């Protein structure tokens, strides 16, 4: 077989292997990120002194309004809305 074809085939195989390796690493990193985000959310929820019912009501209100109720928005959010 033509040496150029063999060289290109080897290069293709090498790059294909590298891509698969990087894709696997990407999946690992995304899983780690998701786990850290979940942990952060749990920590935030635990830091709130609210009953489970109050927390559930807040989440329902958040979903229904498409965002945080006005009294939960930061001052910066309110300034941006007024511009």
Q: What is this structure's SSE topology?
A:
Layout: H1 3-47, H2 52-65, H3 75-82
Give a verbal description of the structure.
The chain is mainly alpha-helical and 83 residues long. The chain has one domain. 81% of the residues lie in helices and 0% in strands. The chain is built from three helices and no strands. The model has no long low-confidence stretch (mean pLDDT 86). This is DUF4315 family protein. It comes from Papillibacter cinnamivorans DSM 12816. InterPro entries: DUF4315.
Derived structural class: mainly alpha
Q: Major beta sheet, specifics?
A: none
Count of distinct strands: 0
Uncertain regions spanning at least 5 consecutive residues: none
User: How far apart, in Å, are the first and last alpha carbons?
Assistant: 69 Å
Helix proportion of residues, in percent?
over 70%
Rounded to an integer in angstroms, the radius of gyration calculated over CA atoms is 25 Å
What form results from the Cα inertia axes? rod-shaped
Binned strand content: under 5%
Give the domain tally: 1
Short synopsis of the structure:
InterPro entries: DUF4315. The protein is mostly helical. 81% of the residues lie in helices and 0% in strands.
Q: Could you name the key traits of this structure?
A:
3 helices; mainly alpha; 83 residues
